[in-house]
Design goal:
The complex is a heterotrimer.
Chain A (H helix, E strand, L loop, with lengths): L4 H7 L1 H20 L3 H21 L9 H35 L12
Chain B lengths: L2 H20 L3 H21 L3 H28 L11 H23 L8 H4 L3 H4 L4 H9 L1 H19 L19 H28 L7 H17 L11 H20 L14 H25 L16
Chain C lengths: L1 H27 L3 H27 L2 H32 L16
The chains are: A mainly alpha, B mainly alpha, C mainly alpha.
Amino acid sequence: MDLPLSDILSAGHLYALTGAVLVGLGLYAFITQRHPLRQLLAVNVVGAGIFLILGSLGRGPDATDPFPQALVITGIVVAVALTAFGAAMIVRQAETRAAAKPAADDNARGAS
Amino acid sequence: MTFAFDLILCLMILGTAGIALFVRDALAAIAFFIAFGNLMGLTWLGLDAVNVALAEIAIGAGVTGVLLILARARLLALGDDATCSGTPLWLRLGALAACAGFVVLLAASVLSIPPESGLDRVVAPLMPGLGIENRVTGVLLAFRAYDTLLESFVLLGALVAVWSLAPAGAWPGRPADPGMTDAPMRRVAGTFGQLLLPVALVMAAYLVWAGSDLPGGAFQAGTVLAGGLLVAAMGGTIGLPSSDRPLLRAALVLGPAVFLAIGLAGIAAGGLLVYPEGMAKALIVIIEYTLFLSIGVTLALLVAGPPVPDASHPNPEGKG
Amino acid sequence: MSGTDLVVLVLLGAGLAFYAAGSLGLLRFPDTASRLHALTKADNLGLGLVALAAAIYGGSLAMAAKIALVWLFAVIAAGTTSQLLARRTRLDEPRPDASDSAPDGEAR
């Protein structure tokens, strides 16, 4: 935290810090947003922040560590798979709820 | 890249992320999420991680964006507009305090780790033994092939999980038609799909091949294939197949099965997932091509969602 | 080399100016149709200029051919999506000729 600006510049800490803030933003949105689709989006932002921390700390002066890169690619694919499952569950839940309360327009979101 | 460029990029990332998370309208939120994903891709370019940049833009921004837009449209049809709603003040303040504290902790620990290329020194001298030059592909398919093998099964498992959400009576069936309902729009999208699908196939095949030595690989290529399939389905060029078609199921398991078979055959050469001397590149290319096909079809079907009860015309066209 | 660099700079600058104009139109114009007008005209020209600059900067014919392909598909995609957006907007607007088959009344 007592690093001068030039150290941040050369070391690629800037991206890692951005990743840390992204994790915090995403977590905050995940807690305060009520709609599950918005929470799903928040989880994706948290994931992106974690990937950025992971990848940017592997940035050396003349090469980037291929190991975290491979991990991040794996992570991105797993994240999209779980997002697909989450989105399908959210839609399915809304369908079930809509079928349970036919023709009632005031039931947009109930308690979870 | 200069420090000023990096700084502006990071600020834009935080800005788009903030809007994506907190804007009231769900479609605007998703649009900003896609912009956020593309900017993230730029940071990966800045970090000289082109493989990740391709994956982030194609999967993180592209496929996830389409997924969220489709989910939002389906919710909207049910009368749920997915806007933000009020949260109690105590919850917001508590969450703010907790998250701010967490960010400070995380930032402090991040700053305590000096960035360095770490295992690049270890991986680089091992690459000639594989016969390929892309180090990330080397890690994915040789040094940590175990992870990638499991990942391909995770993807398959996610599709099984999505399919298991099919309502009673819908199984085995097709996913909801993602096609445009308006006839002129369908024609426009159809022309684009007819053009794009063959191009996407060629492009994807090239990305796999290039992935041995240049940035690219099975996951990026699979996403390109999935994108082509989805655009073609939106224009009605191809119909989405019924979930019990044998050809479809073969395409889904082909990649993981071939990967597993080659991995098991490696036991004869010294251990699970060990490639025999001199055959590494050939085996990696075989695995990547089969895996790419399975990933493409799986991703497209993941986006399309679970089978729905057959309400419309049951036309027996499909893809294979 | 400085002659080439100058051409690249001029093309890039012009391209960015068109992008800025298109983005300004997107932000300032009142309805979807005129926003589309700004985007499709100005941004496509901007894209062409930037692609040309990149192709010249790349210096090799193979690189230029790749950039030309990228440009071609970006333009086709832009044309397709703006057609779809325009049609959607027209469907959503209340019009006397009821050729409407929109499943959901409200958009965005």
